[in-house]
Amino acid sequence: MPLNPPAVAAKDLPGGQKKALQVASEALVQVSGLEKTYQTARGPLTLFRDLDLQIQTGEMVAIVGQSGAGKSTLLHILGALDTPTAGGVYCASTHVAQLSQKQAAAFRNREIGYVWQFHYLLPEFSARENVAMPLLARGVRKAEALAVATDWLREVGLEDRGEHRPGELSGGEQQRVALARALVNRPRLLLADEPTGDLDESTAGRIFELIERLHQSHGLTSVLVTHNMELAARCTRVLRLEGGRLVAQAVSAN
Ligand SMILES: Nc1ncnc2c1ncn2[C@@H]1O[C@H](COP(=O)(O)OP(=O)(O)O)[C@@H](O)[C@H]1O
Ligand SMILES: [Mg+2]
In this structure, what CATH number is given to the domain that contains residue 52? Predict the structure, then answer.
């Protein structure tokens, strides 16, 4: 159940508007008029001005752009880790800007899978325990959480690494564990911030293939920030964050 359903339900609308709302509701992400301004020691820093973004369910969208353009900030806002200064952010059936801290944490746990360039696995826990963490956080019993985590480790090709600690895994394996942890609660939206940025080329390619496979087989909607245009070109759409707005980026087929 969404924490914050849309103010108007489709059934309350006159016939003519109903269709438009149903079409719009296929968008898992709807951002309109987004503004983000940080107050810094050097004065206000405005990253987004009137930024719009719509992502349909099932899309795999790449976001590219120069360092400092605000790509990470945009993902943080979509995932309720940061709040907009102005504008509407409707994501996975939730008005994310209106959530309390507690609601935001529940929203992230349920709806958002997050992977970063660095894996952020907990070093003193095994791979299996790391994957089980989001389940434990929502109150699943330990034995059951570990069993589900084992299934996810198998899914990312690491069934024989469950007892390894993150420090005993390669960079690519750590990112596989991070992906399993991101998806263990079956979120609808996967947000990946330069997930292959720290990996050598062939490992990056294999991690990207895994993301593509998980995206397909779990019916995810995914937003990936990357500097790798070759990988970006494999997504449904490529958007460039430039001058505080998102613009379509043409990519060549090869
Ligand atoms: N909490 C913050 N306070 C002030 N400035 C910030 C904060 N977070 C990010 N910034 C600034 O916003 C800009 C965009 O950051 P970021 O979203 O990380 O860009 P990107 O991911 O595209 O490299 C940078 O100039 C960064 O220094
Ligand atoms: Mg960034």
Answer: 3.40.50.300
